[in-house]
Amino acid sequence: MNASHSAIQESQQQAIDQLIKAEPVFGKIVDLYGPPPLWQRPEGFPSLIRIILEQQVSLASAKAAFDKLLAASGELTPPRFLEFSDEELNTIGFSRQKTSYGRYLAQAINDNDLDLEGLTRLDDDQVRGELTKIKGIGIWTANIYLLMAMQRPDVWPKGDIALATAYQQLTAIDGRPGNDEMEKFSEPWKPYRSVAATLLWHYYLSSRGAAQLI
Questions:
Q1: Does the N-terminal peptide bond of residue 188 adopt cis geometry, omega within 30 degrees of 0?
Q2: Cα 200 from chain centroid?
Q3: Cα dist. 207→9, 160, 167, 202 in Å?
Q4: What is the Cα 139 distance to its own chain's centre?
Q5: Is residue 2 over pLDDT 60?
Q6: Where does residue 105 rank: exposed (0-12), middle (13-18), buried (19+ CB within 10 A)?
Q7: N or C: which end of the chain has fewer CB within 10 A?
Q8: Confidence (pTM)
Q9: 32 CB contacts (<8 Å, ≥6 apart)?
Q10: What is the DSSP track for 93-134?
Q11: Count of alpha carbons within 13 Å of 71, Cβ hemisphere only?
C-alpha cells in the first residue's frame, strides 16, 4: 500500500471507531490492549511462503521456520527456494506437504503462471481466484495475503480458529462459533472486516503474550 504510515494509522482509527459502534466488544479490546499494531507484510513470494508455513500450526513455530529459511536463503526468491533439497527444507521446518506447496508456488511464479505484481490490478475475488489456482493455496491463505500483504480493507479470513476463539471469549457465547456462523457475525462489520480481524487477533495474541509474532 502506498499510503504513508500516519495515513494508514488514521484510516485504521476511523475503521475502529465505526466497528465499535457496530460491535461493542471491539471497544473492550481497545480498552484492554490499545489499538492493534499496523501488521503489514510485504507483497510477494516470501510472504506467501510464510503464510503457507502458518497453515494449521502455531504462529511461533511458523515464524521460527520462516526465520531459518530467510537465514539460509540470503534472498528468498522462487529460484532460490527451488534450489533447496527436500531434506534441507525438512531441517528448516517444512513438512513434506508444505515443501510441495512451496515448490508449486515457486514453479508457478518461475513459469509466469502466477503474476504476483499483477494482482494489484485485480479485485479481491479475482486475487483469490489467481492464488487458489496454485495447489496448497486455499481460501484462508489467499485471504490472509489479501489482508496482510495487499492491505485490502474488507477481507474476512473464514476458517481462522483464533478469530472464532477470541470472539467466543469476548462475548461469552456458548461454544466456539463455526466458520459460517463467524462469517454471519462479521456481516455488520463491513466494509472494515480486515480491521475487525486484526482487532480480534490483537486480543487473541495479547491475552497470550504473543502479539509480536505477526
A1: no
A2: 13
A3: 23, 17, 13, 8
A4: 11
A5: no
A6: buried
A7: N
A8: 0.92
A9: 203, 206
A10: T--HHHHHHHHHHHHHHHTTS--TGGGGGS-HHHHHHHHTTS
A11: 10
